[in-house]
Amino acid sequence: MDVPISLAILLAAGNSLYAALTGEAEAYFDAALALTFFLLAGRYLDLKAQGRAKSAAAGLAKLQVNIATKITHGIAEHVAVDQLVIGDVIRILSGDVIPADGVVSRGESVSDRAFITGESVPIPLTKGEVVFAGESNLTGQMDIMVTKPSQDSLLQHIIMLVEQAEQGHNRYTAIADRAAAIYAPMVHLTAAAAFGFWLLMGADPRMALNTAIAVLIINCPCALGLAVPVVMTVANARLFPQGVLLKSATALERLARGDMILFDKTGTLTSGRFALPHLMPLPARQRAMLYALASASHHPYTKAVVAAMHPQLGTLTVPEFDAVTHYPGKGVEAKQGRTIIRLGRPDWVDAAAHIDQTAPVAWQRGLAFRMGKGASVFLPVEEEIRPGTAAMLTRLDQAGYRRALVTGDQDTAGREIAATLGFDEVHTAMTPEAKAALVAARVAQGEAVMMVGDGLNDAPAMAGAGVGAGLSLAPASANDATRAAADVVVLGMAKDGMEKDSMGGQGIGRQGIGGQAADTLSLQVLPYVLRVSRLARRRMLQNFGLAAAYNLIAVPLAFAGLATPLLAALAMSASSLTVSLNALRLPREDT
Fold first, then answer.
1. Which end of the chain has the least Cβ crowding within 10 Å, N or C?
2. DSSP secondary-structure letter at 445?
3. Is 204 a catalytic residue?
4. pTM for the structure as a whole
5. Domain 64-153 adopts which CATH fold?
């Protein structure tokens, strides 16, 4: 597209300069300026739409730890992570991000693995447990024996997957580029034909040249160049007030073609927080003790207990304990006089026998509470589903979209949420590689796949899908890498970035477990995004039709010598304005 526009500008300016130097009456500097203006306007709109994107692989690299604490004969030293070799022992403190793949050789803790695998439940770690680079140590101190060098870690493998998938995106050619590639040679041929025709007809060379310039100007694909960028800009203006950011210049086109939506679970359909679906009546003293002990811990499950118990306190006085002890991966224990109170894993509190095995799966997951030698109380815990999620899925069903749930959770937990939200297709225990492979397989079958997720484990699948819709769950974003891999980012669902971690200690809070979230927006906007995308693609095609109709009328007039270069520039400007006004017809609100 640049060549015909540049040629028209040069010819119009050159011919006008010659006319000015020779004293002729007609000069067309205004035509050259008009062409330049609309060329720059199109470039500005295009760059504004595309400039928000950045490499997802670069975002993933930020999760890598550069320095590790290596233990040699009991002596700690700081070394570069890339210097670690298999067999080295490294120390991980509470709140640290694990720098390398390995196994726990000493200590116990709880880790947040959701960034890597998407598992919503904190993972208890004991001696012999496998850990991965990039996951967060939430509680106790532990030593890890390195089993893979940093360049072979799971995190590095995910980065490689994202880079490979991004190459596919870079090869994507937008509609306007494809159309311009075919149309540009026709512009040159038509202008050359006009010049040759009038010379053969015996016209003055200056008149033949002016006619050729008019044909070239009026035939310049400025409207074609604006057809997509102006729609992208208007779509951004429509979606941004709804909390939606389009990052990819081709996202709208691919969203419009999408028919299959793969949903991540944790932090996407669910809020990432936990709640108590049922709480059996407790005596006043037990209620006060339970609330006080749960308040002493910052585990995601205990936060759910605090939230559920707070309305039941009434005028009760919250007791103080003589001592509180945190046991990483197990629970929290308090002493009041000779009475020992425990809250934590059922097998640690000795309450496993009290779990109702016939209850819903979510109710078989939770905490147990016991005072002294009294009966244990089981506190079932389930994930909170985001408000409006069910209504959003219903609207997608009505619009004809197919959907599937893809989660890193184990089969029982994943299928429980799937049944609640009406998913017929469920894929559980999905690793990042498995998610990416699933997307690749569906794309190979000819499906237009969209991936909606918020975690690091979703980034490769997002980068390989036709369109990735990333959820921004922190004040700035969700996971940086996931946001970068996504074409569409839903803003506004803020979560705390730093929070006290589970069962005591200070740790990095995860977007998806714990945290007092302020869900100012939700995925309810997704049907509107898809509607705008389909209408935007329709506007793009209409703009192409308007540009073609303009050429069918204007080019013959210019070829016949009935349009001067100035009139040609005005006609070209009118066509550009027409496609811009057509783009403004996109709906402003979700109706």
1. C
2. T
3. no
4. 0.61
5. 2.70.150
